[in-house]
Amino acid sequence: MATQTEELRRLIVADINAGEPGTKLGSERELAERYRTSRSSLRQVLAALEESGLVDRVIGRSGGIFISHGQVQRSLSDVVGVPAFLASQGYVAGTRVLSTKIAAPDATTQQALGIAAEDFVIEIQRVRLADGSPISLELARFPAETFPGLLEQQLGGSLYEILESHYGLVTSRADERIEAVNATPEEATLLGIKPGSALLLITRITYDQNGTPCEYSRDLFRGDRTRLAVTARGRGVGAQPSVGDASVALQSQQRRVG
């Protein structure tokens, strides 16, 4: 059973998710009356929400509590699931499983996973939530022969944890490509944003401890809620970058399809 503090937090987060960034929720007095709680309990919850970047507290005659929708930081230096990096930043992670199926791979998936056209892949599409608010739309594919029974598992948490605990797989590295794209009407509906809004498309090939590709995924992160972080090494101006280092490449202008 949720404590009074947790219940108060859920009520406030629900109002935050229903509003727009910059909207005033109210003054402390107004919020205490609205949620029927004491000012001291309210301040405790607001302090945690402010630390998480969900609200801003402004002092003064025209001040109050304002919706912030702070950005989630995703590190490019670690192979870690969404629940783990959300939890590390104080967010409550959630998931909506949209669809699951076993299907024939397209040419891009065949190449990424190193499988043949006659092989099959497990496909899982999910919306990931941060404090109840959609943060990303992900489509992950796995070799069906390698992970029998995967769709029978609980798919609301970290898939990497399932792969490790049930199949003995440990992720060793991931190759990622990042693009700035605009949300299609369908993507916008699923993420609770306007069509054409900025998204970060992260295409990833994940490898197991033996260097074998085990996952090919396409994640769409909300541009207004996500920032990327990476630790880069300096080796001098004349040093040549190695193939495995992070890099930026220019792409020819073309319309994104699908």
TrEMBL record:
Record-level Gene Ontology MF annotations: DNA binding; DNA-binding transcription factor activity
Compositionally biased residues, Polar residues: 249-258
InterPro entries: Bact_HTH_transcr_reg (IPR050679), Chorismate_lyase_/UTRA_dom_sf (IPR028978), Tscrpt_reg_HTH_GntR (IPR000524), UTRA (IPR011663), WH-like_DNA-bd_sf (IPR036388), WH_DNA-bd_sf (IPR036390)
Region Disordered: start-end pairs: 239-258
Xref: SUPFAM superfamilies: Chorismate lyase-like, Winged helix' DNA-binding domain
GO biological process: negative regulation of DNA-templated transcription
Domain HTH gntR-type: 1-70
Residue ranges crossing the lipid bilayer per the database entry: none
Pfam families: GntR (PF00392), UTRA (PF07702)
Keywords: DNA-binding, Transcription, Transcription regulation
Highest taxon, organism lineage: Bacteria
Protein's recorded name: Transcriptional regulator
Lineage, uppermost ranks: Bacteria, Bacillati, Actinomycetota, Actinomycetes, Mycobacteriales
